Amino acid sequence: MIKERIYRTGLRVTTILVFMVVGIVAVILCCLISLFMSRYWKSVMLGARTTSSQSVSQVSNTVSNYLTDMNQAMEMVEQSMSENEKDRDELMNAFLTFRPDVVAVTSYSSEGELLQCWSPGHTLREDIYQNLSFNLEQAQSTNSSFLSLPHVESIFERYYPWVVTLTAPLPQGGEIAWVSLDLSFSSISSHINNVSIGQHGYCFLMDKDGNIVYHPQQQLLYSGLKSEDTAKLAAFSDGTYSDDTVIYSLTSVEGSDWRVVGVSYMDEQVNRTVQEMIQLLILVAVIILVTALFTSWLLSRLLDRPLRGLASAMESFESDADHFTYHPVGGTREVQELSSSFGHMVMRIQQLMTTVREEEVNLRKTELKALQAQINPHFLYNTLDSIAWMCEQGRNTDAVKMVHALATLFRISISKGHELIPIAKEIEHAESYLQIQKYRYKNKFTYEFHVDQSCLEYLCNKITLQPIIENAINHGLGLLVDEGRIDVYVQQDGEDILFCVEDNGVGMSQEQIVSIMEHGPKDRTGIGIRNVNDRLKIYFGKEYGLHITSQLDVGTRVEIRMPKVKEGHYEAK
């Protein structure tokens, strides 16, 4: 029976342990993965936005430097226009040689007529249908220099460069009213084309109104295979924006109304990275869970084997207690403590059995020995059954404490055959009994000892307090609905020692008190109150013994009086 209970306990503990470890690991992993992925996604998103912003800022700085360089070139051209024709031509030729990125320098009258063009190696058309490099209306309405949109220069014979034109007025007046610089757009376009954000991201230029200045996929735009929502982008201020699929970064170009727009894709900048990390985390989680399962299995083995061994030992002890030899089992700390307590209990029980057998012979000789021989087997069985139940419930700590209390109870009960023992031992015996009963009655009562320390140097009859306490629990507190209480007092009274046990139980009538003192309880299961009274009178005389006072529904008070007794040489067990 006990073996089966312990075996079932082992299986339950093993199952609970496995599920507990795996469950805790799974919950922790889920929480950690969720937290990590949330922070990782934010980190990747921030990194993608930062990368896009840095690329756009780099392009913006390049374009800004390019425009600054154009303005400086325009200043040189403006200064050259104030020179005489010969010096001006020499300066223009030298300037164009030094600046190969300048396609042409053209001057215009106040009416917008092209006056002169400097472009080495290129010939003007005789009939110019449309000059995209100069806008008379914009020139007349603007008192400062302005940039045109990129366009194809069409004023030359068989030469069609892609240029952007910077036009500036000449403040000194005269025949020439405006001068324009046609600069090749290839330097800007090559730089923009070389900038990539991720594998497929790119940058493009647009003006403040959303008109595209340059786009690396210009042909796709013209063919209608690709489109850019420049109207929406023009409404954005500088910064980084994102939707479900695209990350946009916008930066204004200093010194112009142009803006650099960076376009990158969420799936390659963020989603792909996150997916790869999720796959890695899943792999790590699987490895951790497998490790947790293996660890749980190992732990269960550490518990299962010792419990099986302990169950087998209990079965052997149950079948042949006299010739049983206990070999402690290993395992966890709790199992080792339980094993040690069981071994201690076995030793004490065997000693007790030996003592009982010896006492059975002596008890027939004298009335005193007969009175001392009354041992309560039901208490032992109930206690052992409670210990087994605690083991089944996994309350190993409580089981160990109960076994220790039981061992203490029996150790003091035996006391190497001594009838008189130190009062400290008697108190320890009573407290051990109370501990066991408190576990059995599931904390339905409380207790407290009030001991005069000066009394501890004297001796008393062993098993004096326990029967009184037993009676208080069984007949006084057992019928209570509310929580019971037991108070034990030990004090000096002149030349006597006075023990007192008080409870708040149901109380007794005077007839019940007389019946107990004269005949003992009807359900005699222990040493009993009368036994205690008889032993005290046999040892110390008729003036000593028990005195009971009780009041129904209030409680009972039992006083035990004995003389002060000292022993010079007492060997405690």
Summarize this entry quickly.
With 573 residues, the chain is α+β, with helices and mostly antiparallel strands. The chain is built from 15 helices and 18 strands. Among the domains are: 90 residues; 244 residues, Histidine kinase-like ATPase, C-terminal domain (Heat Shock Protein 90), CATH 3.30.565.10.
Features:
15 helices, alpha+beta, 5-stranded antiparallel β-sheet, 573 residues, 18 strands, 6-stranded antiparallel β-sheet, Heat Shock Protein 90
Describe the model.
With 573 residues, this protein is α+β, with helices and mostly antiparallel strands. Among the domains are: 2-67 and 274-297; 320-563, Histidine kinase-like ATPase, C-terminal domain (Heat Shock Protein 90). 52% of the residues lie in helices and 18% in strands. The strands form 4 sheets. Strands 1, 2, 3, 4, 5 and 6 form a 6-stranded antiparallel β-sheet that branches. Strand 15 (484-493) and strand 16 (496-503) form a beta hairpin. Helix 1 packs antiparallel against helix 2 (85-98), helix 8 (333-363) packs parallel to helix 11 and helix 11 (396-414) packs antiparallel against helix 12 (423-440).
